Structure formats: structure tokens, C-alpha cells
Amino acid sequence: MSKQFDVVVIGGGPGGYVAAIRAAQLGFSTACIDEMKNAEGKASLGGTCLNVGCIPSKALLESSENVERLQHKFAAHGITVEGMKFDLATMLARKDKIVSQLTNGIGFLFKKNKVTSLLGRGKLLARNGDKWQIEVRDGATVDTIEATHVILATGSTPRQLPGTAVDNKLVLDNVGALSMPEVPKRLGVIGAGVIGLEMGSVWKRLGAEVTVLEAMPTFLAAADEAVAKEAFKLLTRETGLAIHMGVKIGEVKVGKKDIKVAYTDAEGKAQTATFDKLIVAIGRVPNSKDIAAEAAGLQIDERGFVVVDHDCRTSAPNVWAIGDVVRGPMLAHKASEEGVAVAERIAGQKPHIDFATIPWVIYTNPEVAWVGKTEQQLKAEGVPYKKGQFSNVPLGRALALGENKGFVKMLADARTDRILGVHIIGPFASELIAEAVVAMEFGASSEDIARIVHAHPSLSEAMHEAALGCDGRTLHS
User: Fold this and answer.
1) Confidence of residue 353 (pLDDT cuts 50, 70, 90)
2) Residue 446 near residue 467, CB atoms below 8 Å
3) Structure confidence at residue 469 (pLDDT)
4) In what order do the strands lie in the sheet with 385-391?
5) pLDDT value, residue 191
6) What does each C-alpha distance from 252 to 58, 67, 209, 272, 280 come to in angstroms?
7) CA distances from 104 to 12, 44, 49, 186 (A)
8) What is the CATH code for 171-282?
9) pLDDT tens sequence across 236-259
């Protein structure tokens, strides 16, 4: 007889493993199926985010920023070092150690919460009475288990560049970009999104000449225009990335030791660039291929997303889907919160997620973070608004850090003063945005933030001043 569970989660990423833990906490017998393995062939929970995405990229970003500080910034503090060198192998080993520590941590949490971990690829088969049949395939080993409820959390995979195969030797996706054994002299990046900019920044600081080719005419189109403009200036002038917008990629020739990329630039002129390595970072697609048999009746749209309602219910009874495989932003924290919400809905609770207050972060230097509406969105929607903006230039803490580029921008409703959006570029923007998220979740006004006492000296004072600026009463500009 097949093993039976109340809840089975397919996918062990930040959506899936969190959903499994919460379901177990609520008293359900729970299993989580995931196929990712480490170098030793053992289960490596955490999905793309923890294994080959969010976590390892932040580890390398920090290492590369330390190199840059030592080379270019410490002299201002009176600190000089002769013969500075770095060991890339040690950096990569540190990155791998962090990943291993966290993946093992998820295994510990599964044991603590009595979640059964199953190694393999999960597939939804058909319903037998009120139980779903689920295939678990690990190589030649195939088992079948049963569940009353199934949560699909299969994540996403890198979008492929047509006609160019990723081998993670010369042509790289996010996996290869995190594991280059030596710094390439000439690095090409196709795509000026989050992954392209973060990985380009890492290898530029470590000594590569980095060229970024982006098809879209507008840089960081999802971000506020003022933030995007500042980010482009700082990433090109200070980080040193060569970013070309509005290009059309032509033939990509992969040789034995290099790659030649033919493209048409924004002015319509034919160009050719030669790289030692090429990172393809043109977005991600939902991992929905072969996750369900036809008999399951699972509806998948033309873009490959599993169709769900507002509460993450699919077209199949008692089957839910969360994270990158469904509508909405492909963000780890969005997936996690959906996982928690689905587990609680299965238990009969009524959780709520406000998609309008999900924060976005790009971990470049300076960091970029935002929540809510951009100024261009408010203009397009005809929403009357007011804004306050405060530069980090005169900020005491930012000056002490030696990181006083960027600003905080707040947008508030002109009639009610309710905060509609906050946009930050500068040091620790990823941490500062949390105040804005909390404020918006509680329906705060710019006046509320303006009346809150912020510690001095701190980076959060820029948020305070931006709020004051919504009524034209900044104190330090």
C-alpha cells in the first residue's frame, strides 16, 4: 500500500519547504518531494534560491565588495595594504559552505517538525477517491504516494536564448555564473535584469571587463524612473559595467575558447563582441513541464504558469500552487508567504497576502529596493500624488560608511496622504525598505512616518526626511 499523507508538497524551494513546515505545524502529516542533489548525491533542500540563486549570489557579492573596498575605498580611512590579492577558490568555497549550512538547516527543520523528505521528481498523477496519486522518481527508482492535498511549488528555470545552448563552461546560466573557477578577462551578459546586474557586478569587481546587452530600451523598467536613472549612472560610472540598451541579439558563435555575439545596437548599427564567457540572464520561466499527468486536469496557461485563483487554488480539487510557477512576481519571499497561506487555508484559516506591498530588491552596490507604486504608474493611472525625496549625500551615517550615493523617495496620495510607494537606492536599501512595507501594510500616511522618531545618526533618517518632503518641510535639504 502506498504511503499516505494529508499534505504533499512538490518542490523544496523557499515556497515549498516553508509550506511543508507550516502544514506540519498545523497538525497535518506532511511530505515534501524535491529532486535537487548536492555534489555527494544527497538531497539539497532550498531550491534554486538557496542552492544556485539568492544565497550564493549574495555571498559572492559580499566577497567581491570586500575586494573593492580594499582596493579603492579603505585608503580614505587611512588604511592601505600592499600586495593585496584574493583567492577565488576560497571565495567559492565560502559560498558553498554557506549553502551547505542552510540546506542542512532545512533538513533539521523538517526533522524537528516531522516533515517527511522524499528525494526525487514529483508528478501529480490522478485522483483515487479523495486521494491524489503522486509519482516520486529518482533515476530508475519510482515510488507512488498518496495525499489528500497537494501543493505544487516547482519554481522556475532560466529562460533559454534561442539557438544558444547553455553548457556552463563558456555559455552560462545562473548556476555557471556562480561557479567560474577563474575570473574571465572579457565577460558578456545578456540581460540587464536582477541576475545579470548582480553577477556582472561580482565579476567586474574581481577584474573582468563586463559588457551587458539588454533588449529593452528602458533600464530597470519595473523600477521608479528616478531610481533607474540613478542606478544606471552609478553602475556604469562607478562599478564600471558597460551597459547597452535596446540591442537586438543576432548570431551567437560558440568557439573552443570564446564566444562571438553579433547584435544590432539601439541606433541600428551592426556590432560584434567577443567574450571569454557569456552569461545568459534573460529571465526565468515557470517549471511546469511534466509536473502533472493529463488525467489530473491541471490547467496551465500559454506562458506555462499553473492557473490559480487569488487563494492559490488550481483547477484540480485540493491541488494548490505557489511561487514562481504561478502568477505574480518571481520572488522567494512571495513564494514563502503563499506557502504559509495555503497551509493555513487547508486548515480552514483565512490568511491574507497583499500583493501590493511585496518588496523588491536588487543587491547591486548601491542596493535598489522598492515597494508599491512607481511615479510613472501613478501618472499613468491618473492618481493625484505628492512626493518627498531625500539624498544620502548629507546623511551623517552614510558619510561615515563612505556610502552616501542614492536617495529615498516617498509617494503619497495627494488627498489622503496615504503612502502609495517608497523607492530607495543606497546602502542597505534591502533593510530600509522593511519600514515602508510595515507602514503601507498598516495604511500609514507620510505624516505618520514624519512624526516617528528615527535614530540619529542612522540611514533611516533619509526615510524620515523623505516623508517630511511630501509636505515640503524637509529639515536637512
Assistant:
1) very high
2) yes
3) 98
4) 360-362, 367-372, 419-426, 407-413, 385-391
5) 98
6) 29, 32, 19, 10, 11
7) 13, 8, 14, 36
8) 3.50.50.60
9) 999 999 999 999 999 999 999 999
Q: Does domain 357-469 have CATH number 2.140.10.30?
A: no
242-279 b/e (C-beta count within 10 Å ≥ 16 → b):
bbebbbebeebebeeebbebebeeeeeeeeebebbbbb
For residue 33, give the H/E element and its range: strand 30-34
Name the amino acid, one letter, at 431. Answer: E
Residue extents of the structural domains in the chain: 3-158+285-353, 171-282, 357-469
Q: Which of 152, 158, 175 is nearest to 11 (CA)?
A: 152
Residue 456 annotated to the active site: yes
Question: What nine digits make up the cell of 239?
Answer: 562599478
Q: What is the pLDDT of residue 71?
A: 94
In the chain, the percentage of residues whose pLDDT exceeds 90 is 98
Please choose, from the candidates 270, 267, 228, the residue with its C-alpha nearest in 3D space to the C-alpha of residue 249.
270
Task: Report which of 26, 360, 49 is spatially closest to residue 224, judged by C-alpha positions.
Answer: 360
Quick check: 217 pLDDT over 90?
yes
- Structural fold of domain 3-158+285-353: FAD/NAD(P)-binding domain (3.50.50)
Instruction: With a cut of 80, say whether residue 1 has pLDDT above it.
Output: no
Tens-digit pLDDT profile for residues 294-313: 999 999 999 999 999 999 99
Average pLDDT of every residue of the chain: 97
* DSSP count for the chain of H helices, then E strands: 13, 22
Answer yes or no: are the C-beta atoms of 457 and 397 closer than 8 Å.
Answer: yes
**Element (H or E) spanning 285, and its range?**
strand 284-286
In whole angstroms, give the CA distance from residue 175 to residue 364: 18
Helix or strand (DSSP H, E) at 320: strand 319-321
Burial of 452 (C-beta count, 10 Å sphere; 0-12/13-18/19+): middle
SS3 349: coil
The answer to whether residues 149 and 7 touch, using CB atoms and an 8 Å cutoff, is yes
The active-site residue out of 77, 352, 456, 464 is 456
Sort 110 into a burial class: Cβ within 10 Å, 0-12 / 13-18 / 19+: buried
Answer yes or no: is pLDDT of 401 > 80.
Answer: yes
Question: pLDDT value at position 40?
Answer: 87
Burial class of 214 by CB neighbour count within 10 A (0 to 12, 13 to 18, 19+): buried
| Separation of alpha carbons 313 and 327, rounded Å | 12
The reported pLDDT for the residue numbered 361 is 98
Phi then psi for residue 467, to 5 deg, are: -65, -45
